[in-house]
Amino acid sequence: MDATIVWIVLSRIKGLGPKTLNSIYKKYPSPTKEDLFIAQKRINFANTIKNQKIVDVLNDQMYIKKLYQQVLDDLTKYKRENITVVSISDSNYPNMLREIEDPPVLLYCRGNKEALNIDKKVAIVGTRNATPIGINASFRIAMTFSKMNYVIVSGLAKGIDESAHKGTLSAGGITIAVMPGGVDKKSIYPADNKELAEQIVSRNGLLVSEYPPYQRPNKASFVQRDRIQSGLSLGVCPVQTDVTGGTQHTIKFSKNQKRLLFCPTPTEKGDIPAYRGIHKLLKENFSEVLQDKSDYARLDKLMEKLIPEESKSAKQEPLEDNNNEQMTKLVSVIDEVCGLAKDIGVNEDKLLKMIQQQLKTWN
């Protein structure tokens, strides 16, 4: 935790971006409180940072002590909201993400942070302006990979992303939503998907962001989070995308990070904007093709080859009951019950009490 606190302090220094923080990390992979305050051990920031004004701020002991205390206070607040922080110095920081060009030094998490360490992850992404067929394809692809013990990574955006999350939940799988802003309830973006975000958290999934709680997204943060979607994953599947737009950033990052890029064959005819980017990828042979059920096993083998050696030696725990058809049906029934309860005005606490009372009759 000591290193995590230091990284949060450094991240709050104006002018210290991901690249500079990574330069510091390469020289000081596990910074401690003493590295900030003890004269004999203090980090020589001038060796890494060219901007003298930033160096002066870092050497201002009064200011840094005040900032350090603010971080401690904020961590207490985060804990009350079930938000935890994973730093690049931690052993449970995702291996593949650490190896990208500019990994985030901090990951703010709400939900099942153990999902970060499941190697078999695939990102399913795409346009907000999806067609009904594209939305259905995203749902089906996510469901299928979930049943193959993959964690599904996406961005909670309307359209393809939200459908990927929903497909995962319907299969009883684990999904990670990479946020462009804070992971706290008030900062969820888009606001229309706040309910979906809470479903992800309550059903063993994870909301994750390099941005601290209570921070609203900006134009740059959407692009920055795309590198994390790809960086966490073995493969990236753009379901529908135009030749421009946010999904193209994720595609670019996946190429730079040497992830497996694959997309479903378009089934709709005509010049549909949502397919233009997919047609371009397939025409230029930049992408593997997902055309029928047999392709899933082939893509699985290709992605497994990308798992780091240090992770292959560690046994991967299967997602409990993920291949159980009856469990999938049960999840579907629970969804219906929750929907009915909401329609008739039964709140969450009352519904839980009703379920608990019913469970007592089993014995």
UniProtKB/TrEMBL annotation:
It comes from the Bacteria. InterPro entries: DprA, DrpA_SLOG. Gene3D superfamilies: 3.40.50.450. GO terms for biological process: DNA-mediated transformation. Residues 85-295 form the Smf/DprA SLOG domain. PANTHER family: PROTEIN SMF. Belongs to the DprA/Smf family. This is DNA-processing protein DprA.
